Amino acid sequence: MELTDGSVLLRPPEDADADWIVDACRDPVNQRWLPGLPDPYGPADAAWWLDHCRRGWEEATGSAFLVLDAESGARLGAIEVRFGVPPDVGYWLAPEGRGRGAMTRALVLVSGHALAERGLESLELYTLPDNTASQRVAERAGYRRAGTLPQHIPRRDGSFADAYRYVLRRP
After folding, report:
1. Which CATH number is 112's domain given?
2. Which residues are CB-contacts of 77 (< 8 A; sequence separation ≥ 6)?
3. Which in 33, 131, 141, 160 has the greatest CB count within 10 A?
4. Which residues are 92's β-sheet partners?
5. How do strand 88-93 and strand 122-127 relate by DSSP bridges?
6. pTM more than 0.90
7. Is residue 49 within 8 Å of residue 58, measured between CB atoms?
8. Strands of 75-82's sheet, edge to edge?
9. pLDDT class of 65 with cuts at 50, 70, 90
10. Which residues, 6 or more positions from 22, have their beta carbon under 8 angstroms from its beta carbon?
């Protein structure tokens, strides 16, 4: 399945993306804002994530996409909807994807698709309190801040960090 708005193209990740995923997940910015990422992030971690994505699609528990530039096909980041309770969205950008508005467009696309196709009433997403770039993406895509969840985001060391909760409701 692919989604596009003409500027970004969303497609499921493939095994051929593994080396790029490793490089993107080693980026210090992603390591900072995704405190559950392994450090160092290696090929086995990318293989695990690719398998997780395939299982999500097969079992209808999630929809993971790579975010690409629609014209050039350049990989920019990743976004995933997880159909748990509550359903939520997570995303990250590689350095080459930042500052282009690509993730806002991707979030609008994937959120609209998930709400319509799955008949969901709402979607949530969570950011670390000091991750203002991710918060701006959420707000530009129509999500509204709905409080703080203490000890919600897992860290590599087994502890948990507080999270700002954002919600997008079906129009």
Report:
1. 3.40.630.30
2. 24, 66, 67, 91, 92, 93, 94, 97, 102, 103, 106
3. 141
4. 78
5. parallel
6. yes
7. no
8. 3-4, 8-11, 62-69, 75-82, 88-93, 122-127, 160-169, 144-154
9. very high
10. 41, 42, 43, 45, 46
Cα 44 to Cα 63: distance, rounded to the nearest angstrom: 21
Q: Tell me which residue range forms the domain holding 47.
A: 3-120
Per the listing, tokens 């160092």 go with 40
Please count the other Cβ atoms lying within 10 Å of the Cβ belonging to residue 118. 14
In a domain, 159, yes or no: no
CA pair distance 146, 49, nearest whole angstrom: 29
**Distance, CA of 46 to CA of 62 (rounded, Å):** 17
137-146, pLDDT tens digit by residue?
999 999 999 9
What would you measure as the largest C-alpha separation in the chain, in angstroms? 41
* pLDDT for the residue numbered 113: 95
